[in-house]
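Entry 14. Structure prediction run on the chain below.
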Amino acid sequence: MRHRRFRLVVAAAATLTTLTGGLAYAGVGGVSGASATHATRTAHAADTFSLSHCGLGNGKKATGTPIPLGAIVTNQPGTSFTDITNTAQAYFNCVNQNGGIYGHPIKYYVEQEQTNPAQVAADAKKLIQSDHVDGIVGNTSIIDCAVNGSYYKAKGFYIIDSGIASQCYGSSYSATVNMGPRYSSDGAAQYVIDHGAKKVVFDQSNVPGTGYNAGGVQLIAKAAHVPFVGLTENVPITDATSVAEKEVQAAGSGGAVVLNFTPPEALVILQAAQKLGLENRVTWACSTPCNTDFLAKALGPQWNGKLHVNAELNLPSAAGTDLALYRKVMQQYAPSVALGSFSQMGFLEGEIATSALLTIQGAYTPKSVNAAFVAVKDFKTSFLCKPWYYQKLPVHLPNNTDRTVTPQNGKMVQEQGCFQISAVDPVVKYIRGIEKKMNL
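Output returned:
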């Protein structure tokens, strides 16, 4: 046993005011080195985690033995997901300033990779065998699930991640807070087809997994008897004008273009389309990465209501207890990270992991931490359309219902409320059957 957490001494009043920039709220009493019984801990288990504050919310810095967690994230020219891990770190920093996990701070190890399988395999082994992490939270790598899936399974790790590769969604060891590029692109394709698109052109970064990403859009277009064209672009994009022209020409009159790029790459395409006067020639749509006010502001009012973005998570500006906390945490702990889908994913991953860690009785070990992760069920959050779950399942796609947003005067606003991703895609159909059977 590596370490045991401190026990709560529950104050009679149980009301502590904030000591850290407004991020700790009234809650359960302070962390102490004194012992408390497991019965006391259990009796107050429901009080230890709240969507309104980080960790215990008591404004006291955690100074105990750290609980190590890790992540692997893609960071390369044209494709970077570091906003996700940077925000998970911000949330954990807030937890650590508010009592931690019963006095234990979370130590977060992040490995950046450039889609090199050998590097990604070595990163996972470093985290688990050298850094001795107890859990994996916030993984957002283009190839991690494909490369390390069997290793995670063999080691008994149940990762909480932002999935990209197909293996993240077709496995027992990965549960994502997002639905990934395939299913988000499905949602964008559903929108344009429902609004009369006569043809769908799907364009995406030329990175591993392009066939998988395009497969769902192709199935949805086929089911609707709408022609489909798949394109890929090397990133960073160097000639956005040619890309925009090619997309619009392929879509034709009454057609639609669905983009699957990170925000900076999508932006250069859309700005080029605007310079060419093409913003009204087709219906433009985008997968979740475009759900950021950074993009809406950069595009300006010319794109008001003209870009339709599938949003796997709620608007960053939306009402909701943990969305309000998200904005406060970002302001204090990660002011340089943009509010948007990527940072929301990192926050939500940190939030779910923290809620699970606070349920553990006894030592924090890989076994106890991963058992707590996989036990998560009915996690209600204002980020998602419905509660999130893990559970021991053969496949995972807990986020399969989302929204459509559109730019309006420099802000993303909701255009379409929560709707289900089409069960024409076979994994979606399969997971809906599991959810019905298990009442998830």
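The longest strand covers residues 67-76.
Filed with the rest of this week's runs.
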